[in-house]
Amino acid sequence: MTDFEFYNPVRVFFGKDLLPKIAAQIPAGNKVMLLYGGGSIQRNGVYQKVKNALERFDVTDFGGIEPNPTYETCMKAVEIIRENNIGFLLAVGGGSVIDATKFIAAASRYRFGDPWNILAKNMPVVDAVPLGTVLTLPATGSEMNSNSVISRKSTEEKLAFGSPMVFPKFSFLLPEAAGSLPKKQVANGIVDAFVHVIEQYLTFPVNAPVQDRFAEAILVTLIEQGPLVYANPADYEAMSNLMWSATMALNGLIGRGVPGDWSVHSIGHELTALHGIDHARTLAIVLPGLWKALREEKKEKLLQYGERVWKITEGTEEERIDAAIERTAGFFESLGVPTRLGAYNVKNDTIDRIVARFEERKWVALGDRGLTTPEITRKALEFQL
After folding, report:
1. Cβ atoms of residues 255 and 201 within 8 Å
2. Nearest C-alpha neighbor of 140 from the set 165, 119, 162
3. Taking the model in full, what pTM does it have?
4. Where in the chain is the domain with CATH 3.40.50.1970?
5. 181-383: which CATH topology?
6. Which of 106, 226, 274, 356 could tie 190 with a disulfide, CB 3.0–4.6 Å?
7. Stretch(es) of the chain classified as CATH 1.20.1090.10
């Protein structure tokens, strides 16, 4: 195990009938911006419950945040916040709304030029508007971490940043509100959480059995509970297990003391930026291809993953690795999530463009040991054509 520091200040409220407690979590006297997406929170009743809880605050609504939140939309919120001296942000929805809110919080107090530089040039965030979240969709873990991913339409880019300044002060997790989600969103959430765990687990061994077992427990839970939620999103117990699994997948705990990879995400972000493919669905494409391209380099952990998560114990090492990759892709496909680029009519020209972008940015050694070169990226994507 490597040296590490772990810090997570997010206060979590999980379950039913909790929303009246929101008001006590927001410092009195603040103007509040309520941020949300396309209107699902009105349909499931969460919006009115939140508004009722905030009745003693001056609240400004900001809706219409996209599934892949854009810089252009975020900057509209920044302008309103600056003009109205808004002092607290409340994100209500899924990971996209929360990610957008984190960037808006940082951008609103950024005083060094274009806030896009927070993402494009890794400029430090030294101040941010405080924020909280109400989670209605399990997937990203953004409700309990300090990370955010934002797209920019004008440049067809999708980039990430992280800062302790944008940790939510609190997060209310509402499994019941997720019961009305479309199956596609449920499936996306399962895949997203699954790959979040994989990016921190399937790297190379560093003798960290606690983190390994935490990660494997989350993966097995997703495999067990995911199909139940996919079949019936209103199954409260199964949805609760999915939501908490997704939160634990990316709240920082399982990644401490072990190497992280994240090259699947880096490649997947390009597919979203260029073709608008849902984030989780890009991960389902890239992950099997990258494993095929790096099967020898990741051999030890692939074998461990196959045995402990999928109970694959028979056959040669090569056969067991093949089986682990096939079982993973089959799991995604069973949730209606394609694992081939052809499902989205993505061809070799896109692969060329992604490789060229990585070379231009000097992203030539991604992953836990710098193994994901532009050549490996090409190979991984070509496997999935």
Report:
1. no
2. 162
3. 0.94
4. 11-177
5. Dehydroquinate synthase-like, alpha domain (1.20.1090)
6. 226
7. 181-383
CATH number of 11-177: 3.40.50.1970
pLDDT in tens, 300-349: 999 999 999 999 999 999 999 999 999 999 999 999 999 999 999 999 99
For residue 118 the two structure tokens come to 């927070």
pLDDT in tens, 270-292: 999 999 999 999 999 999 999 99
